[in-house]
Amino acid sequence: MQPDLLQQLRDIYTPLDPVWWPPAIGWWLLLALALYAVYLSLRELRRWLRKQQPVKHARRLYAELYHNYRAGVVTQTQYLHASNELLKRLVIHALGKQFARKANDQNWLEFLDSLTGRNDFCEGPGRLLGNQRFQEFPQTDVDALHPVLARFFKEARA
Q: Residue 128 domain-assigned?
């Protein structure tokens, strides 16, 4: 007679629990993809911030110009010329609108209105930035012009 066959079997050994390190190849690929997406996002954010720097600088320059006007350092005529120059520089260099190089008087005012979507420059107080500012004694209303320019600089995006 044979001895009990069940007694001759070895004990059951469970396999070791899987370890978390090193991860499978799929997790490495997912990590690489996530890192690349973060890199692209940071690069795009950096590019956008650099693009916005000239606009922020123009806003600061305009705020300083208006402050100097209110303090009496700058006359109304100087304020008109300086703000028009600042607008032109902003539109050409920061916003990249090369048409503005040739624009003057009514073309310039219509162009500014097309950028804002309003008619503050052709029919509103912004018309002072046309050829009227070259008259010997221009009729200026800086208090009415300031909100228009402040809104333009606030809404400008590169």
A: yes
Per the domain annotation, does 6 fall within a domain?
no
In-domain check, residue 120:
yes
Q: Are 86 and 98 in contact (CB under 8 A)?
A: no
Q: What is the rounded CA–CA span in Å between residue 86 and residue 61?
A: 8
User: pLDDT of 34-78, one tens digit each?
Assistant: 999 999 999 999 999 999 999 999 999 999 999 999 999 999 889
Instruction: Quote the pTM value.
Output: 0.73
| H/E segment holding residue 107 | helix 105-116
Q: Which residues contact 133 (CB under 8 A, 6 or more apart)?
A: 77, 80, 81, 84, 140
Between CA 20 and CA 137 the distance in angstroms is: 81
CA distances 77 to 52, 59, 84, 118, 153, Å, are 29, 20, 11, 25, 20
Length of the chain: 158
Structural domain for 91, as ranges: 52-155
